[in-house]
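Example complex used in Figure S2.
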Amino acid sequence: MTRTTAPTRRAALLGLVSLPVLPLLAACDGGTASGASDGGSSGATASALSVTDPWAKAAESDMTGVFGVLKNTTDKDVHVTGAKSPAAGMCELHETITDSTGASSMQKAENGFVVPAGGEFALEPGANHIMLMQLTGPLKPGDEVEVTLELEDGTTIPFTAAVKEFTGAKENYGGASDGGGMEDMGGMGSDGGH
Amino acid sequence: MQDDPRQPTAPQDPADPQHLGDPRDAADPQHVTESADRRSAAQPDERQDAAASAASAASAAPQSAAGPDGQQDPAASRPGRRGVLIGGAAAGGAVLGAAALAGADAVRDRVGAPSGGEAAPLMGATTIPFHGEHQAGIETPPAAHATFVSLDLRPGAVRDDVIRMLRILTDDAARLTAGRGALADTEPELAEVPASLTITVGFGPALVRAAEREVPTWLAPLPAFGIDRLEPTLCDGDLLLQVSAGEPHTVAHAVRMLLKDLRAFADLRWTQQGFHQAHGSVKPGTTMRNLFGQVDGTVNPQPGEESFRHTVWIPDGPWAGGTSMVLRRIAMDLDTWDELDRPGRELAIGRRLDTGAPLTGTAEHDEPDFDKLGPNGFAAIPEFSHMRRARGVDSPNGGQTILRRPYSYDEPVGAGAGAISSSGLIFVAFQASVLEQFVPMQRRLDELDLLNTWTTPIGSAVFGIPPGCAEGEFVGEAVLG
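Predicted assembly (675 residues):
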């Protein structure tokens, strides 16, 4: 955030001052989405959701995660039920849970993601994310990958994620012995996806 | 003075609805209203010129106060305080006496508070646009801290690798310079103090070749010079990053973030860190002194002037709007410089040490009189002096200009090294033509320049600086696309 502000933008911001302040869920939020929703011909709710700062972790094969911030611009909750990508044979929505021992693992979010009315839903390494599985080819740093979110009402939200190397948040997936989340997902049990 | 189109200013996409709708902005309305209040409250106190400048800059008022913007009077850009200080002076000598005793800062705090004035806008909040006709970090006034990084592409890198690398680099640079974390930035908070961050990208010949584009003849190591004592580990490279900001954490974070994202494509070749005058330490536009104590860079073309455009930017071809960077690491032997008396130092340079004025003048920017003779009948500005040689006064091919944008370095010396300093200059020159501007000048200095006695070039590199890019493009797209 900077204080320097161009005329048009500042004027617009001044107009926004009285608007409610939205909660921030992602620290690195604020970028220009390379793939904001356009929703195509899907009707009124088509632009209900936008995807800000989408990116995917580079992977040679198998699987990887897609991250970003989902923003709901409507006054109703938006229910994301699935995802698809030409780069992957299968996509799942994943959540991370913490078990009784305090260890966290990830699993398929059976009920999808609910982006609250007027709010945001962060997809982050080590937390909720979109899982691309059965990658059709390597996702190299600097590539772009097309992903489409599927909403409960049948709307689709396509976006483009930038592929980057990422070495963080390994603790959530590391350790062959605890790989419960991965194993549970049906034999994808490599920890290399993230 | 420095009417720089790259002056610290607003983010690139003011009309971008995503920005307008960005809750981070909405969450931060105070900044905007503060600025507006400060401005309107301040104007009545301002001198007419300051008020006019504030009005003309009304769209971007904080910038004029926050940035190294070359204003004649920095106080004029701090609304409120100026009026207070003038008022204090009018109130009589007692106030000024108190000021002298208490220290300017204490008084400023004391008298500043009741006036309703606020602290000046933070330098750390200043941004410089990444996108544009030219890359930032060239016409931009130098920020205090700079890190220069040279990388080598991995063996076997092909065009696709180069393009993907530059896409990531561009996205990172655009975000970081706007004061935002890069995508997948694990320390995004460190990016939130842009402090005039600029990230300038240059290409070595191997990168252009890997991208399957023609390597211009000038994009090659400089010819060997007799004075050179080059260390290969301080020379050349395929990709150059000049990362500069007014805040060292900002630079460190940006460099680290960029290198993390470049790790898939390239290996670090060398890193050089340098410093310039700190923000607020001298009036904007003041020529830097190097560690010899010399005023260094007096004859630079000034940003925004026709001479700048003509000197720096490549006029046509794929590199149009770009430039060339020559980076020379020049060790300065402060120990032997110590042994030279002041008149000797001034004769070596051709300028006075105190003012930077030519030995025939009284002010820094006085035009030197190379015909003038000293009392002993020799040229007042000696034939061997650095300035005279650089200008090429006595050569048939003189008169070249370049943009000097140097940074000092002062490295730690290892225990037992027998020295007390390892200092010098990261001499950075930008020019439209390496071969027609830089090389002839360097040849003259190689042949004769008394300053060579105390300076030794130990690193050297030439990079092609592609023009700036628009949003949606990657840096260098004009050259490699």
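Residues 17-125 of chain B form one domain. Chain B has two domains: 17-125, 145-480.
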